[in-house]
Amino acid sequence: MELGNGAWELPLLRDMFAAHMESYESILQFRCLLLTAPEYRYELVEIPKSHLSEAMEVDLEISVNSKQTPKPGYARVFDFNRKLKYELYFDAGTERKLQVRNIRKDLCIVHASWHFGSTPIEQSLPR
Q: What is the full DSSP assignment across 48-73?
């Protein structure tokens, strides 16, 4: 998500994320897992919105050692065993993006997966 111009206040930016998520029924990610001829693997994964809403309840962290200005930050969501579920990364660089990072696949729904091979074109043409 692009955060655009404006105040770089992590609570405000997290609220923008929550408001933005209200316009979605579901979040699907088409992932390329392997793209090396002759083998290809893809999957279609749904990230449950209920998990993403948990980021509204966690403490925000500023990356104080970063050389960026303003400083980037995180909202890290953990399970009951203190294992990371995912993190929101607020990138304060020129594009000012919010990224969902390191989301655990066991928290998501895999709707489909594809694994197939392909012969390179130059090998399949008659000579």
A: -HHHHGGGGGS-EEE-TT--SSSPPE
The DSSP output letter for 14 is: H
Tally of CB atoms within 10 A around 38: 10
Q: Are strands 39-47 and 60-62 parallel, antiparallel or unpaired?
A: unpaired
Residue 42 to residue 30: CA distance in whole angstroms: 7
What pTM value is reported for the model?
A: 0.80
**Burial code of 8-20, b = ≥16 C-beta within 10 A, e = fewer?**
bebeebbeebeee
* pLDDT tens figures, 68-120: 888 999 999 999 999 999 999 999 877 789 999 999 999 999 999 999 887 76
pLDDT in tens, 31-82: 888 877 788 899 999 999 999 999 999 999 999 999 888 899 999 999 999 9
Strands (E), the chain: 27-36, 39-47, 60-62, 73-78, 84-90, 98-101, 109-117
Round to whole Å and give the CA distance between 113 and 30.
10
